[in-house]
Amino acid sequence: MEMAMTVMNVATLQPKSLRPKSPYLLPNPRRVFNFKASSLHNPQVSSIGAPTLVGQFDPTIPLERAVTPPSSWYTDPSFYSLELDTLFYRGWQGAGYTEQIKNPGEFFTCRLGNAEFVVCRDGDGKLQAFHNVCRHHASLLAYGSGRKSCFVCPYHGWTYGLDGALLKATRITGIQNFNQHEFGLISVKVATWGPFVLLNMEQDVDSDTDIVEKEWLGSSSELLSNNGVDSSLSFVCRRDYMIECNWKVFCDNYLDGGYHVPYAHKGLASGLNLDHYSTTIYEKVTIQKCEGGSTERRNDYDRLGSKALYAFVYPNFMINRYGPWMDTNLVLPLGPSKCQVIFDYFIEPSLMDNKDFIERSLKDSERVQVEDVMLCEGVQRGLESPAYDIGRYTPTVENAMHHFHCLLHKSLKK
Ligand code: FES
């Protein structure tokens, strides 16, 4: 999420305009401090169920008066389950990058909610993806990434080909009604766009590149391609963070960048020209751009570049392209109050040997991530506080965030 800059000109914010009439906001803010402890709503435990919670957000309220969804959306276990079913276990989802599975035998593992996957390139060079679960007693089959000629289960040794077929079931002789051909790995739809690998748990979807592009990026795909989001960059490294917050808190923070960066990331803000930020909203993608930002080189270190682009791909994938760099942020939900965020860094190939430049850039980036982790965990604790559920303002500067909430509402209503 790096430099998640959002929307317009931050300097135009008028504090008084940030006082919308909200269905969650008590008419008199003072009353917030007067109610008795026994009347406090505990947002972690909902007695009304996920579908009702969905209905508590009204996407038709105009942006000028919009507020965020109620805190139960960020804390309630049943709401989290609904999200997995309706958001993450449907549609195309970012999973990895093509460089991980460039050659036959290369594989990587990934997860999404409770679902575990392994993606590989088989001996014929075909891209394959499966649930990473042994068909015997459900052990995870593969871990991490690397290169293999087959997958051997670490538990009892059942062995699968890279095409998912069960090749060997250990000591199964004599077991009645066992048909080895019926116990291959369960496949998952896989596709690529540019440097990214995508998965889809729905079985009856077309993985044709054009169709996937349309569904995943909509009309934003051309703009991304034309602004350097492509396969020409080299992979540098991965960093991942386990964060004690709901996955949406991290996404909100990304989409709120233009509002919080000048205050919470002063070091980063000093290298940006926030007067030249714009946000464009596409179907499921929000693109924030900085034209004419800082061109100053600080000690030969130009991390931000004079052009920067930050794309949020609904529901949980971010692509940041700035100077010679691209980093992606994949936000994986791990529970109502926990997520993992995977940062993958890519750079123009000509700079791959410039270790000093890379090290300094990464150090600067990591400083921002640490600040964001602290902010997100602080928000989650606030959301879980019984006194909280009074609504949060969504000032107009955060139209990217509001669009995200409206998309969530639409998905969850289905
Ligand atoms: S669980 Fe995989 S071989 Fe038994």
CATH architecture of the largest domain: Alpha-Beta Complex
Instruction: Please indicate the percent range of residues in DSSP E strands (runs of 2 or more).
Output: 15-25%
Provide the low-confidence segments as ranges: 1-41, 295-303
Please indicate the count of domains. Answer: 2
Instruction: Note the total helix count.
Output: 9
> How large, in whole angstroms, is the Cα Rg?
23 Å
* The CATH fourth-level homologous superfamily of the largest domain: Naphthalene 1,2-dioxygenase Alpha Subunit, Chain A, domain 1
Q: CATH top level of the largest domain?
A: Alpha Beta
> In sequence order, what are the helices and strands, one letter per element?
HHEEEEEEEEEEHHEHHHEEEEEEHH
Overall form = globular
Mean pLDDT: 84
Helical content stands at 10-25%
Strand numbers in spatial order across the main sheet: 11-17-16-15-14-13-12
Give the N-terminus to C-terminus distance in angstroms.
29 Å
Q: Tell how many strands the DSSP assignment holds.
A: 17
Q: Which fold name fills CATH's third level, the topology of the largest domain?
A: Naphthalene 1,2-dioxygenase Alpha Subunit, Chain A, domain 1
Which cofactor or ligand species appear? FE2/S2 (inorganic) cluster
Structural class: alpha+beta
Major sheet summary line = 7 strands, antiparallel
Organism: Prunus avium (Cherry)
EC number: 1.14.15.7
GO molecular function, one term: choline monooxygenase activity
Pathway: Amine and polyamine biosynthesis; betaine biosynthesis via choline pathway; betaine aldehyde from choline (monooxygenase route): step 1/1
